[in-house]
Specification:
Blueprint (H helix, E strand, L loop, with lengths): L2 E5 L2 E4 L4 E8 L6 E8 L6 E7 L5 E3 L7 E6 L4 E6 L8 E9 L5 H7 L4 E2 L3 E6 L1
Parallel strand pairs: 2-11
Antiparallel strand pairs: 1-3, 3-8, 4-5, 4-9, 5-6, 7-8, 9-10, 9-11
């Protein structure tokens, strides 16, 4: 069974940091694009970042650029989202997603959110 499980969410004060993890089971991240998305209450889901497991190419939303870093450990079949300098507007449920794709498709998949597998989400709350 293909499964993605996020962890690492929680409550943090503004300016703090959190690291989210996305562990995959039932498949390996070979030639995959992995993405992080978030959805705040009353708002549409938005893309945060994506990474290619093939060559490590990445893309970030402007709102998180220079604060968040996406990474992947292929040996552990786990993707990460390091979030620094958190702001109250980063409060949301964060989801990871994955699908097999060529690294050249990172930007397209980020924009389309066209992934076959999604996790259940982890809550991130940033207090002012």
């Amino acid at each position: 069974e293909v499964q993605l499980v996020e962890s690492g969410g929680g409550l943090v004060q503004a300016g703090g940091s959190l690291r989210l993890s996305c562990a995959a089971s039932g498949f390996t991240f070979d030639d995959y694009v992995i993405g992080w998305y978030r959805q705040a209450p009353g708002k549409e889901r938005e893309g945060v970042s994506c990474i290619s497991s093939t060559d490590g190419s990445t893309i970030y939303a402007d709102s998180v650029k220079d604060r968040f870093t996406i990474s992947i450990d292929n040996a552990k079949n786990t993707a990460y989202l390091q979030m620094n300098s958190l702001k109250p507007e980063d409060t949301a449920v964060y989801y990871c997603a994955a699908d097999r794709s060529d690294s050249s498709m990172v930007a397209v998949m980020f924009l389309r959110a066209d992934f076959g597998s999604w996790g259940q989400g982890t809550q991130v709350t940033v207090s002012a």
